[in-house]
Fold NH(3)-dependent NAD(+) synthetase.
Amino acid sequence: MNMQTYADYLVNWLENQRKTLYKMDGYVLGVSGGVDSAVCAYLLARTGTPVHCYMLPAAVSSETDLTDANAVLDGCGLSGEVISIEPMYQAVMTSVASALHPDPERVKVLHGNVMARLRMVTLFTLAQSYRAVVVGTDNLAESYTGYFTKFGDGAADVLPLARLRKEQVLALAEVLGVPSQIIYKAPSAGLWEGQTDEDELGVNYTVLDTFLRGEKVSKAAQKRIAFWHNRSHHKRMLPPMPEETPNQ
């Protein structure tokens, strides 16, 4: 199906999940200023159901991202609220500082993951208060490479973009009318200053999309993609449980 038809399909799919599976009253969405959350916002705006949008910056967050997040909300007709996660982040890191492993190589990613998990806690808390479904923004490339924080941005009730390569997310964004400056900005999880998805992964989304289409990529790219995919297997599965039970 074409992207306009797929957009209609996703709107209906979201409403079906909300009404039938979850039996909830609305949606909660974290709006980052990136294209993935923008696409989700534009889809949710079409449902006609209450949508509660939140921008959850930390001290390292870019002012540009906040400006872009507001542009998204203005463009799709939704309202949003800014809730800083910085006080929670400082409280957590201060509390655990003396107990952390001393290896400095772990610190940057660890701090970024804490931010992602605090955003998850915030969104689920708000969703519970409004009887709402938490909408995740992960796309197929992120899912395949494990480019999300376990129990952080990977935690959601629904993942409407999970079948879409990055190029398809961009195409859907154009169909929905997402502002061009958001569609073409460098993708970033905003976990630390200057961080971008492609720098961290070591492979760009164009190559990832080529691979996900089943087409040929360089051996170096294959190796890099396989590294991330194999390393992140645990993120895409439920926690293992013993197969056997006791007899007594």
Observations:
- Strands lie at 26-30, 51-55, 80-82, 132-134.
